[in-house]
Amino acid sequence: ESAMKELDIQPTDIALVIVSVGPGGFTGLRTATTIAKMISFATGASIIPVPSAIVVAASSDLGAGPFLIVSSVKKEEFWLSRVECNKGEWLCTAGLSNPDELNTKASGVTCVFADDFLPRSAKQYFEEHSIPVNKNDLNAVSLLEVGLQFEARGQTVEPLDLQPMYPREPEAVRIWNTGQPGQ
Fold this sequence. Notes:
By secondary structure, this protein is α/β, with parallel strands linked by helices. Helix content is 37%, strand content 24%. The protein is built from 7 helices and 7 strands. Helix 3 packs across helix 6 (140-152). It is globular, with a radius of gyration of 18 Å. The chain starts with a helix and ends in a 5-residue tail after the last helix. The relative contact order is 0.19.
């Protein structure tokens, strides 16, 4: 309400919601996508989902790539996204991976983005192949810019179809399900 007053707008003036959909933390992604849905339902705004890996690449100002983004690390397994910008269009292919698959997936990349949880064996691979590793960094300006590019191509989703990207079942859900009678 205070932001609307400051900007002198009404809720019905909101026409577009751009949301980073992950992968990432369960609670943060559920909250972000739920808020995007609520705003869309209340105002009729269109929703643009943007994979977080694309936001990381766009935030870097390191060119078109291709880049690898390592996220959601659990032991030796991680979500690996290959991102590049081809003729102004950001493209992303992603899936669960591990250090043993880097020989085939790291070919031609200009750099890698990862957090402090990058498995040691993956870090060694990148060092041995002289592929620089940078910190994951997302910023709202890049999210907005990429989201507007997606909107121009008609990449909107209906509120009920908006889903966060989870690399694997959240730990709390897994524990809950394994503790239930009859499971």
